[in-house]
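subagent[fold] <- orchestrator: predict structure for attached chain, return tokens only, no commentary.
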Amino acid sequence: MQSSPDRNAPAVTPAQHHIDDLQTLKTKFVSLARAFGRDQMNWRPMEGVRSVHEVVALMVAEVHLFPTIWGAAPPEASESGWEPEMARTEALSPDAAIEQMEAGFDHMIASVESLDAASRAATVDWFGTPMQAEAALSAALFDMHEHLGQLIAYARMNRVVPPWSR
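subagent[fold] -> orchestrator:
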């Protein structure tokens, strides 16, 4: 039975919602990536589509580089720019990629926690489109959810049960 909401609790802010969402994404991505057998990491549904490993590598690149859009420094291990970072992350072993994804989510969460109201309202460049940093963060989260759905579909096709579904 679901408890009734506390009407006296303060409303969740967009900032807190983004942080909570990132923490949920981290938990789901990391646990699902770990649930795949290492022999399944190169599986792809068809030619020309990302493999399981490539989806994980993409997430590493995103959690490292999305925060640079709103002014955060990338982690030391990352490359500058999407193509070099994708090449670096795709070359990682599956275990190293999962470890970097987990640490990268912590990096992204910290970058979001550090944003004040002025930083959230600042105009940034979202892949050629000027928008407020808060809108860019929302766009990043939408994209990450899309890739979580991709990884869930891959799991189902490989009879991997998402750990939170057990």
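orchestrator: received. Logging for downstream: Residues 64 and 76 are 9 Å apart (CA to CA). The mean pLDDT is 94.
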